[in-house]
Amino acid sequence: MNPSEIIKLKRNKNHLSREQIDFFIKGYLNGKVTDYQMSAFLMSVYFNGMNDEETFYLTEIMLNSGEIINLDFLNMPKIDKHSTGGVGDKISLILAPLAAVCGIAVPMISGRGLGHTGGTLDKLESIPGFNVNLPVKNFKEQIANLGVVMIGQTPELAPADKKLYALRDVTATVECMPLIISSILSKKIAEGADGIVFDVKAGSGANLPTKEESAELAKKLISVSKKFGKKALAVITDMNEPLGYNIGNWLEVEECVEVLKGKMVPDIFKLTNVLTGAMIYIGGIAKNLEDGEKIAADNLMNKKAYGKFIEIVKYQNGNVDYIKDSANLKRAKFKKEVLSSEDGFISELNASDFGYASIELGCGRKKTDDEIDYLAGIILKKKYGYEVKAGDVVCELYAESEVKLNNGMKRLEGAISFSKSKPSEKKLIIDILE
Ligand code: URA
Fold first, then answer.
1. How remote is the CA of residue 237 from the centroid of ligand 1, in Å?
2. How far is CA 58 from the centre of its chain?
3. 8 Å CB contact between 415 and 349
């Protein structure tokens, strides 16, 4: 087989066989398919899609590119959560330790920033020393001892997703259903969970913004998970404005630490408890979703999850003092404020624009080998529906250079809208599919 013939087949809207997809993915891993050929292939899939059969083959081939962990030695439910990608979406950092203190083993494999959305691994790595590249042996040891482990794709686990994910990030090939499904499920099934809760985002900052696309993605994530024998549940959630107040790697860790220590940030608090509650429910510890949410909320408020988070950081070599000193307010060198241009109410904080602005500030990558500025980012001072007066600070931008700061400011132009009357309430939890 010749790589360009396979690209041409997809370019011409043909369905690919298991053998053709296998040849292409294995070829990418062993160097016979180049980055430029894979980029062309991904763009062909973006435009021409894949049917359910091709999506299943792609997922299975990506899964089998590495090891599949068996966690049967753990005598407890093993459940994970994965988001389809959001801006300011830092929920995993609170949810993983929280689910663990509620009796769920959480073997979490996450990703880095993807397109305009942030990534759990980049956030964790903003804690100096934090190691997201554990070998399988340490992964198993940690989950046995701590009940939770947070890593990325490695050369042993979902290596195909590791390479494809980094390439999709910078080639405008993120927003594509079969690529999202195979990416998420290849790593989630490799990690050995019995079940997965999906946080499927809908709205301007989601990878598939419309409610129809999000519902279709949710249904497909559930049905493919079930084909692999996994329990699955999807929560469709609003991603029209960034989650919480902080966007940017360290800024998001800092906000999570504050929530874990008891600060009330309403959208983060609600979403964390709904998703953790769903994990507790499909793990068989709660009899329904409401009970699961209540167990989660109790354990978030009693701060046991904070203690577990510190244990994770310690276990994975992160500098715990850096976390504990978050009161020192580590910030990037340069700061600018965005001011309200009028009296009224905030009627939009466009999540996609905030995501792209954060990349300009240094939070994400434009090329696969770009370095991240961990302290860069945005702090919202106002959220959707807040009343403002002209001149009020709507958000603060942080960057390590004035050029990046100015580029971030420019990218935010038009991202914030105002209305004279209070806008209607937004629904954070749009739907739940089992
Ligand atoms: N999360 C992933 O792991 N992959 C995607 O493609 C989107 C979100």
1. 16
2. 21
3. yes
Residue nearest to ligand 1 atom 8, measured at CA: 84
In angstroms, how far is the first alpha carbon of the chain from the final one?
41
Q: Is the separation of the CB atoms in 332 and 376 below 8 Å? A: yes
For the whole prediction, is pTM greater than 0.85? yes
Q: Does residue 390 lie in a domain region? A: yes
Can you give the residue range of the structural domain that contains 296? Answer: 79-324
**Ligand 1 atom closest to the CA of 183, numbered from 1:** 4
- Look at ligand 1, atom 3, and give the residue with the nearest C-alpha: 184
What's the gap in Å between 158 CA and the centre of ligand 1? 13
Q: Tokens 């469709």 — which residue?
A: 236
Residues 153 and 226 in one domain: yes
Which residue(s) pair with 335 in the sheet?
A: 398
Mind listing the pLDDT tens digit for each residue in 98-137? 999 999 999 999 999 999 999 999 999 999 999 999 999 9
The Cα diameter of the chain in Å comes to: 64
- Report how far residue 211's alpha carbon sits from residue 201's, in angstroms, rounded to the nearest whole number: 9
Which residues are identified as catalytic? 82, 161, 168, 183, 187
Same structural domain, 338 and 241:
no
| Residue list, ligand 1 pocket, CB within 6 Å | 84-85, 111, 114, 179-180, 183-184, 207
Among 336, 323, 313, 355, smallest CA distance to 394 is for 336
| CATH (domain of 202) | 3.40.1030.10
Q: What is the pLDDT of residues 164-182, one digit of tens each?
A: 999 999 999 999 999 999 9
CATH number of the domain enclosing 23: 1.20.970.10
Please count the structural domains in the chain: 3
